[in-house]
């Protein structure tokens, strides 16, 4: 009788040990999942992973023009304001630069360009 009692006790201890081991592994998996899926992208400032095929196509899309603001040909008087804009999409996000007579227009604001005095601008080439 004492031997049977000891064997039963050892069996129950093994069952409890296995249960605690499985519980520990489950909690470890849960913590790893939370870290890798939720916290790691936030820490690295990455967008969430969706896994869809369309997301992969959009992730490396070439630059594409989605809007250009060019006025009709007209004369400007000195002091008149002319606004031009260029809207583009793509991934990585494209940058817009304005060039006139081979010179960069540093006073432009990204995709917007404002010319505050009369100066001839050719709209033959868009870059």
Automatic annotation (TrEMBL):
Chain segments annotated as transmembrane: 6-35
InterPro entries, A to Z: Ig-like_dom, Ig-like_dom_sf, Ig-like_fold
Keywords from the named record: Membrane, Transmembrane, Transmembrane helix
Name under which the protein is recorded: Ig-like domain-containing protein
Domain called Ig-like: residue spans: 63-127
Top-rank taxon, per record: Eukaryota
Keyword Membrane: yes
């Amino acid at each position: 009788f004492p031997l049977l009692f000891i064997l039963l006790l050892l069996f129950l201890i093994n069952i409890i040990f296995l249960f605690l081991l499985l519980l520990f592994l489950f909690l470890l998996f849960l913590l790893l999942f939370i870290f890798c899926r939720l916290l790691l992208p936030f820490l690295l400032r990455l967008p969430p992973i969706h896994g869809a095929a369309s997301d992969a196509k959009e992730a490396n899309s070439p630059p594409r023009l989605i809007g250009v603001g060019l006025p009709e040909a007209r004369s400007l008087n000195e002091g008149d304001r002319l606004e031009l804009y260029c809207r583009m999409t793509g991934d990585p996000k494209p940058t817009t630069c304005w060039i006139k007579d081979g010179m960069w227009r540093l006073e432009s604001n990204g995709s917007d360009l404002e010319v505050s005095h009369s100066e001839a601008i050719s709209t033959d080439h868009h870059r």
